[in-house]
Each structure stands twice: as structure tokens, then as C-alpha cells.
Amino acid sequence: MSTTVIPYTTEIRPDTGVNNVKLGIWLFLASEIMLFGSLFAGYILLRTGNPEFGAGSGALSVPMATLNTVVLITSSVTMVLAWAAAMEQNFAKFRLYMGCTVMAGAVFLVVKGFEYSAKFEHHLYPSHSTFMAIYFTFTGLHALHVIVGMGYNAYLWIPGSKMFHSNPQQFANRVEASGLFWHFVDLVWIFLFPILYLLPDAAS
Amino acid sequence: MGESHAHHEKPGLLASWFSVDHKVIGIQYAVTALLFLFFGFTLMMLMRWQLAFPGEALPFGGLLGDSRMPGGIMLPEFYNQLGAMHGTIMVFLGVVPLAVGGFGNFVVPLQIGAPDMAFPRLNMMSYHLYFWGGVVMLSSFFVPGGSAQSGWTSYPPLSNIAGSGQTWWVFGMLFLIMSSLLGAINFIVTIVQLRAPGMTFWRLPFFVWAQFVTSFLLLLAFPAMQAAGVMQLMDRLAGTSFFMPEGLIVSGQAIANTGGGSPILWQHLFWFLAHPEVYVLILPALGIVGEVVANNTRKPLYGYKALVYSVLFVGFMSFIVWAHHMFITGMGTMMSAFFQTTTMIISIPSVVILTCLLLSLWGASIRFNTAMMFALAFIPMFGIGGLTGLPLGLASSDIHLHDTYYVIGHFHYVVAPGTIFALFAGVYYWYPKATGRYLSEKLGRIHFWPSLIFINGIFFPMLIQGLHGVQRRLFDGGQIYAHAQEVLHLNKVMSFSAWGLAIAQIPFIINFFMSLKGGAKAPDNAWQATTLEWLAPSPPPHGNFATVPTVYHGPYEYSVPGMEEDFLPQYVAGNVSSEA
Amino acid sequence: MDRPLGLPEIASAHGAELDHATLLVHGLMFVMFVGWGLLFLYMLWKFRASRHPTAVYEGLKSKSSTYAEWAVIASEAILLVGFSIPLWSQRVDDFPAPSESTEVRVVGEQFAWNVHYPGPDGIFGRTDIGMVDAISNPLGLDRKDPSAADDVTTINQLHLPVDKPAIIHISSKDVIHSFMLNEFRVKQDAMPGMTIPLWFIPTVTTAEMRANRGQEDANYEIACAQLCGIGHYRMRGFVTIHDQSGFDAWMASEQALLAEDEGGDDFWD
Amino acid sequence: MAHTLGEKPNIRPYIMVFVALMTLTLITVAVSYLHLPTMEAIALALLIATVKASLVACYFMHLMTERKLILWTLLLSAVFFFFVLVIPTMTAGNPITL
Ligand code: HEA
Ligand code: HEA
Ligand code: CUA
Ligand SMILES: [Cu+2]
């Protein structure tokens, strides 16, 4: 039997000032920035090249999207509070805030589900127009991110929380990393909200 | 406190299949990639048959089935499949996994004195994603209509209206992208965080620098293709038209689509990935050549700092030259001037890198072992490839050369006698580290010389054909075109050279497998080298180093004046005049 | 040399300048390759271990490589600013006046080139994708439109008068093609959904070219340079360069054909 | 970052940012009902979104106090983000025209 110990998994490397997980998650987010950046590039190119771009945008529900914005922002603050609780070593508080975060994610997806099915009822599919194509692709990809983030948060919330007691520092690091991802998902939504729901209206 | 991985090293395939040890994963990557290279090469040899003898039956070719080669005569759709898949496989399943996944994984942690990669389990996942991406790609040959056939560039609308093989291609690409992204994160974190004490950035071996920059290219360029892939999937599966304008009429039938899309958008996103990608192909190769040249000239690399700065600069610039692949799509003066200028600018650091490698020979004491021969051959071969990039980068001369065999010749010179030769050099150089045994030098010579001759026999005629204006991707090699007639006979020259090249690989394959058991035993420091990987036992055990090594100076302290030995390893303290 | 580097013979006014730039770059490449190459071979010989058993730690001290690099930078800058950018601009900005040119539309499709002349009235007739018929009306030309009445369409046959600027509007019906005229040094992708103009002045008639080559049946060809499907390799068309009177005669004969078709009626409806 | 285990991080800023985000959301929705001219509407909506995103990044994601290493990485991707966003549109806006 041999054992490999990877240094700086939990503790900070003095000269770089970060641990491995922190750097790793930020690098991942950097690539996510490029992913959404490329999608936005498509949005801009297709929009500027096309006078009838907004076709079908009126069908989107601003109230529902506003609700979802509020939900996601709330989940972001509960996420950071859950991290604070983990840092503070307060398990009950952590459970509470993390629970809220996971629930908010679920609410977001349910509202999204209602939105989608309302579109389908009106026979608005991605193939309806360029705008609908973008709407479904962007929100679909974003929802996928919500699912992944929620999944990991749910893991940390119940089954993974054993580590809260066995290795509190590493656990707090994990919560922080998960939080960074979750905030990023929120941040993307902050841009999707106006460009999909608020602006096509203005354009037409 | 560190996360610890306890393993009971069970022998057996299953255990190593799920190994998290960077060396095992590196070897998995390397062997899989070599097999893919071989497979991509096989596809190409079939194509070369059709190009040399258009419309003639290939003996036993009929075995490939009536949808591909009825009676041994190739169908154009099969030719297009072979072309698209040859390009894709060579680039994404062959060279990148070998250079980054294989050599990067195996060598980088050793060279920086780390016990493993920063995220060993993620590393295993990268390999598995790569593997399954490859499986998806290969299975696409067997779906109705065959594999992707719209070129490795997969330009829509052609790729949008193509058969279901294209969908598999996109899925395969998404796997490969994910694999590369995870790998890139792992490399960057490893290099930043796991350097041994004393291993400052300015003491990193050049190969590590190359991998470092490569990882950034993978990290930040691949997502564009990810986005493009998702959009193409939507176009193909959900009926959207991201890449299709309205009013298309395909074989007399109007296509029912909403329109409003842009075929140019795909090209931008694809080349935003694919241009940095070509530097992903070359940077690790340059890194390997740097290591091998330093070791076998027995002196420090010339201009280490200039090399590092150039590599960083090339990496940065490679993100803003992509539209030089798109001059002919209808670009105005302003944008074409921008991309011509950036393209000329990026060629300068490449010249600097090549010049540094070349001038490292001055004052050397050159040992001509096989690794060094491949590394040396790399230099002028890359020179031809790189130099032929210049007329392509100038939009005015690109008018004549775009989409001709000149382009094919240009990039094969950089990837085949360029990158592939560098990778061969790497195999000969690090094989003793991985296995504890040398590859045979004699078989090495038999591998090297014919390879060098044949590979030029393939690719130099391409430049000539290109100057005559012969277009690429022609199923019949240009038979019907008047402008191709003068250079048509070269098709045979190229094809015979390609088959000759295949034969020249036999000694290598024999060597590779026979030396596992029968090769001469190699000491830990097989080449009297200075970098850290040679401190570890050969093959290195799990965890690599018995104790964490300390680094005292730069990577290439060869022939330090006043020393008895002609090399001063990084892990040995010593007085060096030029301390970084 | 008649055809340096094997470049095809030139049959357009701008071809010589374009080739000049191409040759200059290749000159630079040649100098670099031979210069570095000779140095390379010299060093391999001079510093091989058997001849030079101990390496010199400092290596090369001369600054000449820096000068060489600056020379490369300077040459590239000259090629770029002095040649390539102006030449490109001339191609894409300095279009001749349509009134003094032959205007043609060329529309690519799998796997043919549809050529559309506006006819004597100089106005392209209306086209409508609803009217496209793969055989009888591949361009979807609406013959009811008055300006369409005299429009001439051909498949894979481009006729142009010599020494007069030609403006060609390139587009595509289905996938991306690339319109390539080798001897005229012209290449332009045919993008579906876009119409992109290009121009050139043919300078050598087909008859002269045949005489020069000594081949009675030689033709200028239109090639497709972009992968466009299984027939990409055979998507070939022909260009005929007439002298002005020959072109007029050709146009007149096409008009006569049109009139005949008109009489025969029901062909277009 | 200077957070140590067992110490209670100061959560006041988080609450304040939360309030600010909610307010900005309301504002941007309200503005959209004003039907401003297209350019103004786009500029304003994107401005608000940028402010919101910066708040999330600076406070929730602790970028304000993050290490230089990470800031440099993000700067790099911000630069490339800019290129991929802008250049395709610029080439599309600079076509060959007669
Ligand atoms: C490893 C891959 C690689 C590398 C390194 C390069 C390097 C370069 N490439 Fe290439 N390129 C490709 C792979 C690569 N390319 C591929 C795959 C394609 C085609 C894709 C497709 O369409 O399918 C392509 C296509 C391509 C095009 C598009 C052509 C077209 O479609 O019309 C252009 C145009 O600008 C271009 C330019 C360049 C330039 C200026 C460099 C420069 O970076 C080169 C700089 C290097 C030098 C200038 C050499 C200097 C060396 C010396 C001075 C040493 C000499 C030494 C001795 C003689 C001993 N390349
Ligand atoms: C990394 C990239 C790469 C590499 C290495 C190669 C290598 C080769 N390529 Fe290819 N090629 C492309 C990338 C590459 N190619 C791309 C992107 C295209 C464009 C596709 C398109 O149009 O869309 C293309 C297109 C292309 C064409 C043009 C087709 C056309 O336009 O119609 C041709 C024509 O001859 C060709 C030939 C060859 C040949 C003869 C080799 C040879 O050099 C191959 C040499 C290979 C080896 C020497 C490897 C041998 C491996 C082993 C011996 C492994 C042994 C195994 C073990 C020990 C386990 N390639
Ligand atoms: Cu049309 Cu190739
Ligand atoms: Cu490129």
C-alpha cells in the first residue's frame, strides 16, 4: 500500500495564497465565462444582423422571470450565509441556510418548468424563431447549470455534511467552491434576464 | 492537512483502468493516442489510394461494405467521411491527447517535483471522457449514412443538413472538450500549486512552461466550440437555425427553417477554438524539442527567458488571429488588415523560439541519438511549415492559396514532420523513464531516416500542387480540372510516400513493444540529464519521489565551467554563475 | 521564368500585382530557410560530439540573431503595409462603376454554378425562391417581371468581354461554395444568405489563351474551392473571354434564344 | 483571504448587497415598462445588470479581497471574452460591399 499526499488541498500555499480547490474552481469559472461569452457573441451577431429578431419575444413572461430573479438572488445570499455558518462552525445555521439555497434552486427550476410548458402550449418551440432558439438554448444551458449546482449543494447539505465535523476546514472550502459556482450561475442569470426578457420588447 | 489517497495497488487491468496515478493515466493516454494516430493514418492511406488511382478498385477494399467501397471502388461520400474523420482524429484524438494527456501527465508532475497531479480523480475522469469521446467518434462510422463528412471544420449549412453521423461528431466533440477542460484546470493548478521547494517559475523546465500556456489555450478557447456545438445540436435536433439563413434550397427543395441564422457565426466560434488549437498542437512539441535539445547539446538552452516570453506571447496572440482562416468569406479591408497584422505579429515570437532552439546548437557537443535526430529534424521541418504560413497570413496571397493543397502542405509540415516528429523524440527520450529500459537505437535509426524522407515526399508536392491552384478535399485528386493536369502525377508520388511512411513505422512499433522486455536496462538518470524527473526511480513509484526534492537552480545547467561532470541536476546544490 | 513557382498563367489585370506579392513573400521565406538552414547544417557538422567533445556553457554570444529577427520583422511589415493591405483594399473597396462594367450574378448550388445576366436593360429581374425549379428555372427568375424579360441565365457557363471590368455578385442557394477562377486570381466564398461582390478585368481572351498554350480545346474554368458535399470535386464551370464584339454576338444569340422560348410559351409557366 | 475557521465572518455586507440587488431588479423591470428608445433601453438595462453582477462578484464571490493570482486569471478571460464578443460582430459589420 502506498499513500500519496497532495499538498495544498486544504491549506493555503504561502507563496500563491490559495489552495488547490480555490484556484481550480476559479479556472473553471474562467472557462464558463468564455462559454457564455461565445453564446452572447452569437446573440449579438444574430441580433444585429436581423431586423425581425424579436419575433415571439412578447410571449415571454416578465413577471415569472422577475420572480425567478428574486429567487436566484435570494439563494445567492443564503449560499454565502451558509458558507459563513460553516466558517463560524455553526452546524444548525449551516443546515438551515444550505437548505434554503437548495430549495430556492428547486423553486427556480419549477418556475422555469411552468414557463417552458406555457411556451409549448402556445406551440412556441425552439424552431419558432431565432429568438426562441436563443431563449431555449440559453435558458436550457443555464438550467443545466442550476441542476448541477443544486445537486452539489444538496450533497453538501445532507450526505456530505459528515465532513463538517471530521474536517471542518476542508468542508468550508468545499462550501466556498460550491458557492462560487452558484454565484456564477446567478451572475449569468442577471445578464440573461434583461437580454431575453426585457430588451427584445424594447427593440420591437 | 492534505487530502490523502490510499491505494492498494492491485495488479490487473481493472485496477489500472481506474488508476488515479498520473503516470498510469499518462501512459493510458499515450497508448490510446498512438492507436488513434495509427487509425487516423490508416484512414488517410485509404484516401491516398483513391487520390493516386481514382476510381480503381482497392484490393480487398470491398470488405469495407457496399455503402463505402462497393467492389473496392471508393464512393465520394466515403472519401469525405475519411477526410473529416482523419482531420478530427489526428487533431483531437491523436496529437492533443498524446502531447498533453500523455507527455503532459507523465512528465509535468515529475519535472516540478510533485507527487501527482493536483486532482488525481479529475485526472482519471479526463481520460475516461477522452476515451468515450473517441468511442463515440468511431462508432459514428457505423450509423446509417456513415460518419461526419463535412470536413473537420464542419461548416454549416453543409453540416446541418448532413446525416446523423454529424450528430455523433458533435457529441464526441463535446466529450473531448469536457475532457480537455478538466485536464487544463488540473495542469494549471498542478503547475502553480505543486512546485517543489525552490522550483520558482523561472526555474521551470521549458516543457512545463509550454504545457502551462497550452493549458490556458485549452481552458479559454475550447468553450467557444462548446457553445458552437450546442448550437449545432439545436439546429440538427430541435429545428433551430442558428447557422442557417432563410430561403435555402437544397436539391430543388426549399428547406423549412425559420432562417435568421448565420453560417459565419459557426466559422468565428470554430476558429476561435481551432486557431489556438493549432498552437496546442505545437507548443508541447516545442517543449519536448527544447528538453531533448538541451540534453543532447550538453549546454543550456540559448535564451531561456526569450523562449518563455515568446511562448507566453504566442499563447496570448493566438486568440486574436483566428479570422485569418476566413479572409475569403467576404471580409472588408479594416478587419482583414487587423487579422493580417496580428498574424504577422504572431509569427515573430515563433521565429524567436525557433531561432533560440537553433542557436542552442552553437558551441554544443551534439550527441546524435534517435531522440535528438527527431528533435533536430523538427527544426527545419517546422521551419517549412511555419514559413509557408506567411503567404497564407497575407490576405492578398491567400486569395490564390486559400483552400488549395498549399494549405494542406503548410499545416501538415507543422503537424506531421513537426509535431509528430517531436512526439517521437519525446517517446524515445522518456521511454526509459516510463519503463526502465531504452528503446533500441538501431531500430530508431531505421525508423528515423525513412520517415524523414517519405514524409517530405508526401508533403512537399502538396505545396507545389497548391501553387498550381489544386483545391483541397477533391475526391478524385483534381482529375477533371485543367489546372491540375501538370501536377496530377504528384498524387502518385505522395501516395507511395505515404505507404512508405507506413512501412517505416514498423520498426518503431516493434521497438516500442519489444523493448518493454528486451530493451537495454536504463539507470534512473538515463541521459545524464538535469531536470527532476530523472531523480525518481525508473519507472517511478506511486508518489514519485521518496522525499520531496529541493531545487537549487535553473533547469539546464549543463557543462558548467569548473565542474567535473558535464551536468548539474536541479536537485543538486552547486555554484552556478548565472543564478536566476 | 514564365510561370514562377508554378503559379498559373495570369489572365487578369490585377493578377501580376498579386503574384508579385506572393513572390516577394516566397523570396523572404527562401532567404530565411536557406540562411537558417545553412547555419543549421554548419553547426551540426562543427559541434558534433566526436569533433567537439566538450560543450561551451555560454554558447553563442553574438547579437547577430537579434539583427536577423529585426530584419524579419521589417520585411514582414513592408509586405503587410506596402503590399498586402493595399492590394486587398483594391480588391474589395475600389469597385469600378457598374455602368462601365459587365455585371453578373453567380449563384452556387450543389453542384453547379448558375450564371445570371441582367440583359440589355442592365437590370436583374426579380427572383423568388418559390419559383425555383431545379431544371427549368434554377434561379427562380420571375419572367413576368418586365426587367426579367431580357435576362439571360446559363449553367456553368460564364461569358465575359475582355479588357472591361467584370463585377460578379456571388451567392449560394444551399451550402457554402467557393468561386475560384484560377487564371484570374479570383476566389470568393459563396455564402448562403449573403451576396458578395467581386471584380476583376480579364485581359486574355479564350482564343488568345488557346493560341498561347497551343491547345485548341483549352478552357478557363470555374472551380469550387470549398467542400460542399459529395459532388464538390466535380463542381466545375467554364469561363469564356470574348473580345467585345464576340461578347455582343454571344449576348445577341442568347436574346434570340429567349425570344424563341417566348414563342414556345408554357416553358416558363 | 483572511478568513479563519471558527471566526464569524461579517455578514452585514451580504445583507446590504442583497437589498441592493433586489432594488436594482425592481428598477430594471420598472424601466422596461417605460418603453425607452432601443439604444437607451439597452444601455440602461446592461448598465444595471453590470452593477448587479459586480456586486455579486465583489461581495458574494469575495473578489474584492481575492488574491492577485485569481484576479489575473479573470482579467485574461475578460480580455478574451471581449474579443469573442466583439470581433465576430465587427467582421460581420465590415463586409465587402459595392
Ligand atoms: C501546429 C499547427 C500550426 C501552426 C504552428 C501554424 C502556424 C502558422 N499558421 Fe497555420 N494552419 C494550421 C496549423 C498550424 N499553423 C492548420 C491545421 C491550418 C488549416 C486548417 C484548415 O483549414 O483545415 C492552418 C491554416 C493557416 C491559415 C489559413 C489558410 C487558409 O485557409 O487560407 C493561415 C493564414 O494565415 C495560417 C497561418 C499560419 C502562420 C502565420 C503561422 C505561424 O505561427 C508560423 C510562424 C513560424 C515561422 C515563421 C517559422 C520560423 C522558423 C524559422 C525561421 C526556422 C527555420 C529553420 C531552419 C531552416 C533550420 N495557417
Ligand atoms: C495533427 C494533425 C494531422 C496529422 C498528424 C496528419 C497526418 C497526415 N495527413 Fe492529414 N489532415 C489533417 C490533420 C493531420 N494529418 C487535417 C486537420 C486535415 C484536413 C481535413 C479536412 O479537410 O477537413 C488533413 C487532411 C489531409 C489530406 C487532404 C485530404 C483532402 O483535402 O482531400 C491529406 C492528403 O494526403 C492528408 C495526409 C496525411 C498524411 C499522409 C499524414 C501522415 O503524416 C501521417 C503520419 C502519421 C504517423 C507517422 C503516425 C504513425 C503512428 C504510429 C506509428 C503509432 C504506432 C502505435 C503504437 C506504437 C502503439 N491529410
Ligand atoms: Cu461547391 Cu465545392
Ligand atoms: Cu490559424
Based on CA inertia axes, which overall geometry of chain C fits? elongated
The sequence of SSEs of chain A as H and E is EHHHHHH
The share of residues in extended strands of chain A comes to: under 5%
- Summarize the biggest pleated sheet of chain A: none
Which structural class best describes the helix and strand composition of chain C? alpha+beta
Describe the protein.
The complex is a heterotetramer of chains A (204), B (580), C (269) and D (98). Chain A is mainly α. Chain A is built from six helices and one strand. Chain B has one domain (23-136, 161-245, 255-534): Up-down Bundle (Cytochrome C Oxidase, Chain A). Chain B contains 16 helices and three strands. In chain B, strands 2-3 form a two-stranded antiparallel ribbon. Chain D has 98 residues and is mostly helical. Chain D has one domain (12-91). Chain D is 70% helix and 0% strand. Chains in contact: A-B, A-D, B-C, B-D, C-D. At the B-C interface, helix 3, strand 2, helix 8, helix 10 and helix 11 of B face helix 1, helix 2, strand 7 and strand 9 of C. Strand 1 (2-6) of chain A pairs antiparallel with strand 1 (3-7) of chain B, so a sheet runs across the interface. The complex binds heme-A (2 copies), dinuclear copper ion and copper (II) ion. Copper (II) ion is lined by residues 275, 278, 321, 324-325 of chain B.
Give a topology summary.
The complex is a heterotetramer of chains A (about 200), B (about 575), C (about 270) and D (about 100).
Chain A lengths: L1 E5 L13 H29 L13 H27 L2 H31 L8 H28 L4 H5 L1 H36 L1
Helix pairs in contact in A: 1-6, 2-3, 2-6, 3-4, 4-6
Chain B lengths: L2 E5 L5 H5 L4 H31 L23 H36 L8 H20 L18 H4 L3 H29 L12 H33 L10 E2 L2 E2 L8 H35 L6 H14 L15 H27 L10 H24 L1 H7 L3 H31 L5 H28 L21 H15 L1 H13 L62
Helix pairs in contact in B: 2-3, 2-4, 2-15, 3-4, 3-6, 3-7, 3-8, 3-13, 4-6, 6-7, 7-8, 7-9, 8-11, 8-13, 9-10, 10-11, 11-13, 11-14, 13-14, 14-15, 14-16
Chain D lengths: L11 H21 L5 H23 L7 H25 L6
Helix pairs in contact in D: 1-2
One heme-A (HEA) sits at the interface of chains B and C.
Fill in the keyword field for this structure.
A: 204 residues, Four Helix Bundle (Hemerythrin (Met), subunit A), 6 helices, elongated, D: 98 residues, mainly alpha, 3 helices, binds heme-A, binds dinuclear copper ion, binds copper (II) ion
